[in-house]
Amino acid sequence: MTEYTFLIPLLPLFAFIMIVFFTRWKEMFSALLSIAMILAAWVMSVVILIETLGRIDEPFQWAYKFVNLPNFVLEIGTLVDPLTAVMLVVVTTVGACVEIYSVGYMHNDPRFSRFFAYLSLFLFSMLGLVVANNFFMIFIFWELVGLTSYLLIGFWFEKKSAADACKKAFITTRVGDLGFLVGLFMIGIYFGTFNYGGVFEIAGSGVIPAGILTAAAIFVFCGAVGKSAQWPLHVWLPDAMEGPTPVSALIHAATMVAAGVYLVARSMPLFVTSAEASLVVAIIGLITSFMAASIGLVQNDIKRILAYSTVSQLGYMIMALGLYGYDTAQGHHSPGFYAGTFHLMTHAFFKGLLFLGAGSVIHAVHTNDIQEMGGLARKMKLTAPTFMIASLSIAGIFPLSGFWSKDEIVAAASHYPIFLIGTLAIAFMTAFYMWRLCFLTFFGEPRDQHRFDHAHESPKNMTYPLVFLAVLSICAGWVGLPWIHKGFATFVYHGEAYEPHANYLLMAISLIVGLSGIYLAYLMYYKKSISADAMAEKFKGLYKLLYNKYYFDEIYQKVVIDPVMAFAGLMWKFDANVIDGAVNGTGWLTIKWSDIKEWFDTWIVDGAVNGCGWVVRQGANILRFMQTGSMQFYALFIAVLVVLFGLYKFEVKFLKIGWPTVTIIFILGVTLLALLTRITQIKFKANRRTDGEE
Amino acid sequence: MGEPGIVFWILSIVILVSGFMVVSLKNIFHCALFLILCLFSVAGIFILLGAEFLAAAQVLIYVGAVAILMIFAIMLTSNLASEKIQQSNENVLVGFFVCVTFAISAVMLLAKTYEGVWGRMTITEPLPSQNIATLGKYLMTKFMLPFEVVSVLLLAAMIGAIVLARKESA
Amino acid sequence: MMLPYLALAAILFSIGLFGVLTRRNTIGILMSLELMFNAVNINFVTFNKFIWTDGLVGQMFAIFIVVVAAAEAVVGLAIVLLLYRNWQGIDTDHVSVMKW
Amino acid sequence: MILSSLVAVPLLGMIIVMFLPKDKFNAIRWTSLLISVVPMVVSMWITWDYFFNLSGTSALAYVEGPYDWIPSLNIQYYLGVDGISVPMLFLTGLLSTLSLLASFGINNRVKEYFAFFLLLEAGMMGVFVALDFFLFYVFWEIMLVPMYFLIGVWGGPRKEYAAIKFFLYTLFGSIFMLVAILIMYFTSEPHSLNMVILLDHGPTMSHTLQMVCFIFFFIAFAIKVPVWPFHTWLPDAHVEAPTAVSVILAGVLLKMGTYAMLRISWPMFPQALRDLSFWIAILGVIAIIYGALVSMAQKDLKKLVAYSSVSHMGYCMMALAAFSSVSAIAGCMFQMVSHGLITGALFLLVGVIYDRAHTREIAAFGGLGAKIPVYTGIMVMFSMAALGLPGMSGFVSEFMIFVGAFGALNKVLVGISVLGVVLGATYMLRMVQKIFLGEFNMAKWGGLTDINLREIISVAPLAVLTVAIGVYPKPLTELMTATLENLVSLMAR
Fold first, then answer.
1. Which of A595, C4, D387, D419 counts the most CB atoms within 10 A of its CB?
2. Which of A629, A630, A635 comes nearest C20 by C-beta?
3. So what's the ipTM on this one?
4. Which CATH number is C3-98's, of 3.40.50.1390, 1.10.760.10, 1.10.287.3510, 3.60.20.10?
5. D418: distance to nearest CA of chain A, Å?
6. DSSP secondary structure of A388-419
7. Beta-carbon contacts below 8 Å between A and B
8. What's the whole-model pTM score?
């Protein structure tokens, strides 16, 4: 089956094409086609996972030359190793759940078919990204994922906020991709290949200078920063919640945003060659995680809380991977790689579940504001428990899946005090804001009676995926139990397999931290023994800062967007006035110059011409008297000339007189006689007058 | 060959004198009459030169047709035959001088050329005696095209004359 | 011995030319033109007899000239009639409209 | 014969069209369309045949001549194609036919319009097949005339200004080209205008002369491309020209500049090229960033697309500056083809909306996605293609250009140029957002109808090719690999 891995992305693509061109008008059929394809992909993925379990150290690779120029080859191919296999299963699982869920959630939407087409396109891109065997191909699907994300965030594009959000998401991730692109160029130039195996081999061989390696790694990481919404490019993800909730679950929680983490994990051989790059990764992860968690504490929009939670958890994973790279570069062992990828998997399940649950809640109460909810546990018998399971999982409560993966991350950070404290603080905040959300949503008295009255449990095709994911949220972590010998850590690893060992102290600490977070939330929002408002009032400055998300949007607006737009406007002015002005100015100068020329022409050049004309005309005024109009006069002239010509040509002699003399005499004779005629002409005229009188 | 005989000289004088009369007489009617005389004499010259057909044509066309036509024209354009009217224009003096010069220089040129070139030329064959027949044959063979063209020209001239001379109908 | 013939033709031509140059009467001019034509004809026939007898080219030309002259005379006289009709006179002075 | 037919058929067609009765609009339209199908099919056949039989070598194919034309000046009739002209011929044939199809809406002076259009096609074909400078120059200039009238008669409100600007500007450049050609002509011994012969003559000229010739050629071609700062005729001409003419302008005319650089000035003056490549790269990078920024500031949809052309052709210039890299040059060729397809399609689409709404102001629209979904889909697709989305031809070309340029040029410079990717996304998405997303103004645009079948047919081939090249670029690379290798080796002299 592994040989046919390339089929996995193609199945959803087939669904996409079929829906767009053929079955668009048959809504339910489109949905079913889409679901059938993702289920088929899921089955294949599971089979591949099982096959891969048997061949951990022999990744399967298949490639086809996409562009083949001398010294420049671009490939399309598949690489199946444990990481790929796990990601395939995760993506197809969440994808299948979300698609089934969407049948209910998107019910009655006018663009129902299109939604499934987009989802299929997304799954195609995401699966392609996962199976890629080289950096070029991953970039292709990386961008396609961005496109589908754009389309899906903007699915309800009539809403201005959605239209803004999709653009923001695309452009912000593009900024990250810019770095990725530069990283790719560096890889292409210095490594001469894009293939993972080739690149990593060269990176490990020490041929490439360390500076280049660091730079390449950091640039590649830029891509992850954009896609995984890491600081400072995290701003798009909360806004992306304008899309339909299943989209948020699939793309902006479970899969696409995890692609950044996947990329870092995938290029880990690159990062382990550079401690600096890895440290940058880890620090960015920590900052992101802490910042997002702190913002999550005070938000009121259910999806935004989850979004910040996602950012925070992704930062967690990134940090773990970065720490692994840092450790390994210095020759230490670290559980970071295993921890990061493990958390990637478990997080996909419980965060997918959280979003789908949130979707179910929103479906029921038609609002996103948790301040308007409350007491919903009574109405939503299935949604509430599953949601709480996921919340427990993300809070890291034993023995749910989140506990196991989070524990490993804490273990990875344990050597570095700052990271350890940060990690625990984040875990605490996570537990707190998740349970704040839970308490406000499901417990207590309804704060908006009207909404509460109309709330109802979602249909079965929405709740069953919740249950399925809840099961996974509980159990998925058990593949990585520190006590089992052949667990996740020996399956997905980099370099040599890491043998996890149970560190009970750390387990206890992280459990206590998680529980205390929940307890604080319980006190504040369930028992209300500590007033949330009072706290907000007490730390007003901090509260405002957090509530406004550290003002990142405003800062970016002021620092980046406004200047760029102003600069663009300036450029346009520059273009229209200076450059085009120069062109038109040249034209104007030419015209002015030609004006001068015209003057010159009129008075000097044409003056000369006219002068010639004047001379000629004056001469002609004399000569015009020869123009008698009398045909005979002209004939006479001809005769005179003929005679002259004859005299000259044949050198006629009269009585020994040479021809020149003869000619002169002839001319003189003619002239004299003409003058004579002129004098006597009066007589002729008089005669003519008498004619007229007759 | 041989020298031109007395006939030639008589004819020459007649031609020149009558020709001069044509250009100088005041009465245009008389001019026409002298023209007839002149052309008639030229026909004589043609006979001397062995061009009998041409001589006949000369008499028929010029004397018989053209000159008569002119007399008709003179008579149609009334009141022009009187002697009172100035018949020459202001070019008379210059024209006369030029024409005399022309005549003298032409004759001198001819004499010079004759001495230089023509005199030494020999004639390949004498003029055929029955040259009317030859002429007719050539007209129908070698000079077919010019002949036809000239006939068309004549036709055109005829039509042109009719068109020009007829009275405007409206 | 053709010089006398040629001389005759030359002088006749000059006389014709004189007529063309000086007659005021259009018919007079036409008559002078006929003189010039005849002078040319004499030349042709002379050359035909004394220099080039082959094919009677000279006479042939003369015949054509006679024909053309006839045609010319016909048209010319027609024009003269037209002139007379329009201007009540056929003096060349009347037709000096070419004057600038 | 086959290359001559590419030029001759449209010319003949022009004459035929001129003999058609003036008021039989449909007859004129269909006749021209059918005539233009002939060169299209021929060019496709050439592409096909070249790909399968001739692409292995860099030799000129389908050569006609050199036949003496004006022997006293050694001017020859010499046609031939190789791997860089074949794609251009294909593009020209295709776009001409599609543009003619898109011109069916012209109702004013129909006969003249179509006759001019066919003349234009003949000129364009001629430029891409000519191998003699004289011939090349003639075709190069011939195109100006129909273009001038097409813009000046059937254009928008400022058509006279735009037409005359276009004409004078290009003519201005042509003068430089003429001088350079003459320099080459008189320094070669025996005097020759044959490009193939002059290819060997160029590098033997003195350095100064090479520089002079190179710069002169560069000015001429740069105006056509257009390279910043010679670009200002382009927005005016594009905006004022009728839709089909904009398509041809963007799709083919701009390519003539880069094609001519690749065909003439680059391989002929390698030393000058080496000296100046850095500055050319700077011009390219400026064009990329600058074009993107300026189009971001545009309020007129067509002008936005026009300035995006400046930006996209900047990529070509940067690639050309990286002359030592086969992948950059190949990327340049890809960019030429893909820009022709994508921008051509964008102009067609702008024309579609303009025909319906009679405005191109971006701010006037909003939320059209709900009303005209098919149009929106196609437009979004091409916008994505324009901003270099993978799976479309634009991405392949940009990627190849960047990789090649990154290796061959100053890395900081290329790094800056990569910013163009983000800026490209920004202006395209802003446009998409403002026109198609957001709230729909029912009162204003309620009567808007979706794209019709004829318009879809005229865009569909472009869409198919854009995706095909993006997904499967291999044939196109193989078509020109041998030629490009040869070119790169020539430029390395």
1. D387
2. A635
3. 0.60
4. 1.10.287.3510
5. 6
6. HHHHHHHHT-TTSHHHHHHHHHHHHHTTSHHH
7. 59
8. 0.72
